[in-house]
Design brief:
mainly alpha, Na+/H+ antiporter like fold, two-stranded antiparallel sheet, globular
Amino acid sequence: MSDRLRAVERISGAFARFIALEAASTILLLAATAVALALANSPLHDAYEHALHLPLSLRAGPFALELSFGHFVNDALMAIFFFVVGMEIKRELVRGELSSPSRAALPVFGALGGMVVPAGIYAALHWGGPAIRGWGIPMATDIAFAVAALGIFGARVPSGLKVFLLALAIADDIGAVVVIALFYATGVDPQWLAVAAAGLALCVFLPRFGVRSYGVYFLVGTLVWYATLRSGVHATIGGVLLGLLTPARPLPGAEHAPVDDLIHRLHPWVAFGIMPLFALCNAGVALDASSLGDAQTQRVAIAVVLGLLLGKPIGVTLFSWLAVRAGVAELPSRVGWPQILGASVLAGIGFTVALFIAALAFEEARFVAGAKLGVLAASLLATFLGVALLARVLPGQANRE
C-alpha cells in the first residue's frame, strides 16, 4: 500500500472517530441550547438568572477566589475546553495537517479570510459606535457543529474536504485565541502575569526531569490558571498555553504522546459535559419586546448574522482562491470550488466560541442579547444552507480515493 493511501486511511479513520463523538455531543449541545432558551422565556426566567449568579467560593491554602456559577463555567470549566483546543492545535502543528507549509497553506489562508472579512463587515456597521468591541464575535467557527454537519454526508465527502474543514477550524481557533489574548484582556497585572509565566516555564522543564505524574501537572496547571485569571488576561488563555506546551510525541518509554492520551481522556468530558453546560449558561436569551425591539440589539444581531452568514463563506472562499491563484496552495484531490464554498458556509456556524467572545466583548445587556441572537440565528441558517449546498455539489455515491 502506498504512503498516500496509508495517509488517507489514517486521516479517514481518525476523522470518522472524531466525527462520531462530535455528532453525538452536538445533539446534547442543541438540547442544552433549547433548554436555555426555554428557561429564559418562561416563568422560570428569574430562577434561571438567579442560578447563573449563585456565588461560589474557591479556596486552596492562601488562594481564594469568589465567582458566580456562570463565571465559574466561563472562566474555569471553559479553560479545560481551551486546554483541549490547545492540545489539538499542538498536534496539528507538530504532525498533523498544519505541520508543513504545503499542507497548511489552503486552510490557513481560508481561515485568515474567514476572520478578516466577517470582522470587517461587523466593524463597518458599528464603526465609532459603542458596540464596536463585538468585531471579534463573527470570526469564530465551531468545530463540533461544523464537522458534525459535514458528517451527515458520510462517505460522499472526499477525504480532502474533511481535512480542509477540520484544519480550517483548527487554524480559526488559533486566530480566536490570539484575538482573545490581545483585544479582550482588561487591566493586566504584571506580577500575576509573571507567576503564570513561571508556571508555564515549569511545565516545560518538568518532562526533562522525568516527571510523568498528571497530578503534578494538574497542580501546576491550576496555579497557571489562577494566576492568569488574576492577571487580567482571560483564564482560558492559560488553558490554551498549557495545551500548546503538552508534548505531542511519546516520551521515552511511553507508547502514546501525552496530547493523544489527554485528548482521549478529556474530550468526552468536554463534549458531553462542559460544552452543553456552557450552552445552558450562555444561550439563554429573552425573546421579548424589550430586547427584540431595541435598535442597538437589532443592529448588533444583524452585524453578527451578516459576518457569519456572508463574511465567512466570502472570506474563506476568496482567500483560498487567492492562495491557489498565487501558487502557494492547491485544491485537495476530488475537491472543486463548489465543495469549498459549501464547507465555507458551514464555517459560518460560530456558536460556542462566538458566544464565548460575546460574553467577553460586552457588559451592556442589550449588546449581549443582540450578539447571542445573531450567533444563534446565523449558526442555524449556516447549518441549513451549508447542508443544502453540499447536498447538491457532492457526488451521489461514496468517494473512493
